[in-house]
Amino acid sequence: MRLPSVTPLEENRLCRNRDEFDRLVKEALARGKGAFLKIFGKAGGRPYYATILIDDEKVLAVETVDVSSGASLVGSGALDVVNKMVAEGPLVVDVYPLSDVDVKMSIVDNIDVYNNTPKMPLSRLHSSPRSEDTVGGPTGVQALSKPPEVVGHKTSVEKPRRRFEVKIKAPVELDPYLRGMAKRINSLAKASGIELSGLEIEAKEVRYALGSGSAVHATVKLYTGGKVTGNIKNDFESAIYREAGELSKDLGKRVVISRVLFS
């Protein structure tokens, strides 16, 4: 998920238990109309990275990434993982208070995760899941599909859509940020009428000589089946460079796209 350009209340705050985490959330909400949380911790012994957008009443968007496998989850199931992380502790938390405008901008910037997260009261962030707590929207990552239409004695079943695959080859601390960029690139592709079957980002941090700083250098490979050419290809490539600029703000260091490859 993409974070707006706001000043953090706390970065790398260690929360050893649920009470400390709850106090941190309440402190953030006391300073604004909502908050954005980045959480590192473990659930079931596995390391996870979670991002959560809340206002002063509801959980608006939540996503977790399994650091080991790279698998991501959004919605109610992701919040269950967060609650396990909080219960097992300890956690390392970055928290950003948000104004009402910041909350709205965060919804727009993370619309896919927002649409796939049922709007749950904040009590769900502090307790085990209860289905009756759902305010509205789907009950999990997505709403249950309708049963297949029966025509005569045959059943009409919709063909499953091809799954979009993301591969990240980068240091573990960069993985969540690059995975978020990959999702935004896929959304840009869809808006341009391009269907990607996969996307691969290979990145590493490069330190420059003579103490002139460092940057993240990345190669982006897009699997399009060779269908993207001409001006569409050029415009899409330019959009990827703009995404790198936005990611530079999130990371606090420069992100350089070394190459964009179409396959």
Secondary structure elements and their pairing?
Elements (H helix, E strand, L loop, with lengths): L9 E6 L2 H12 L4 E10 L2 E10 L2 E9 L5 E3 L1 H13 L2 E8 L1 H10 L1 H5 L4 E2 L27 E3 L2 E3 L8 E5 L5 H17 L6 E10 L6 E10 L6 H22 L2 E9 L1
Parallel strand pairs: 10-11, 12-13
Antiparallel strand pairs: 1-6, 2-3, 2-6, 3-4, 4-5, 4-7, 8-9, 11-12
Helix pairs in contact: 5-6
In short:
Helices cover 30% and strands 33% of the residues.
Characterization of this structure:
- 30% of the residues lie in helices and 33% in strands.
- The chain has 263 residues and is of the alpha+beta class.
- It has 2 domains: 124 residues, no CATH class; 98 residues, GMP Synthetase, Chain A, domain 3.
- The strands form 3 sheets. Strands 1, 2, 3, 4, 5, 6 and 7 form a 7-stranded antiparallel beta sheet that branches. Strands 10-11-12-13 form a 4-stranded mixed beta sheet, covered by helices on one side. A two-stranded antiparallel ribbon has the order 8-9.
- Helix 5 runs antiparallel to helix 6.
- About 13% of the residues have low confidence.
Unreliable residue stretches: 128-161
Based on CA inertia axes, which overall geometry fits? Answer: globular
Give the helices and strands as they follow along the chain.
Answer: EHEEEEHEHHEEEEHEEHE
Please give the radius of gyration in angstroms: 20 Å
Secondary structure tally, helices: 6
How far apart, in Å, are the first and last alpha carbons?
26 Å
Fraction of helical residues: 25-40%
Strand content: 25-35%
SS content category: alpha+beta
Mean model confidence by pLDDT: 78
